[in-house]
Amino acid sequence: MNRLTVILNFISHYKYLIVLVVGVAVVGFFDENSFMRRMKLDMQISDLEDEISRYKAENEKDTRQLRDLRRNPKAIEKIARERYFMKADDEDIFVLSDDEKTNTNNNETNE
Q: What are phi and psi of 63, to 5 degrees?
């Protein structure tokens, strides 16, 4: 009985502090709307906003390119040359690469 009275006296003396600590713990960590969850969702919102701005910039670029294609027939030729390496009948295309050649002589024989 002595232990129980000590515990009850402690609880009755610090009841407001205990309720405050338990309330902060529930709201801060365990609740569905906890502070930790809110911070996680804020970071997710930030990432999604960055992604939205990237897609908007890509959409604007594509819209400009589509507008150029509709207005200027030379733009189709330019895109065909740049992206798909197409050429006219009377010209040659040379593709230059900045890639370094790797040495493949590691115990292989060249024919």
A: -65, -45
Q: How far is CA 9 from CA 3, 19, 23, in A?
A: 10, 15, 21
| Residues 24, 18 contacting (CB under 8 angstroms) | no
Distance CA 46, CA 40 (A): 10
List, for the chain, all residue ranges whose pLDDT scores fall below the cut of 70. 101-111
pTM: 0.51
Q: Using alpha carbons, list the distances in angstroms from residue 82 to 18, 73, 74.
A: 71, 15, 12
Amino acid, single-letter form, for residue 46: S
Asked whether 95 and 85 are in contact (CB, 8 A), the reply is yes
pLDDT tens-digit map of 54-73:
999 999 999 998 898 889 87
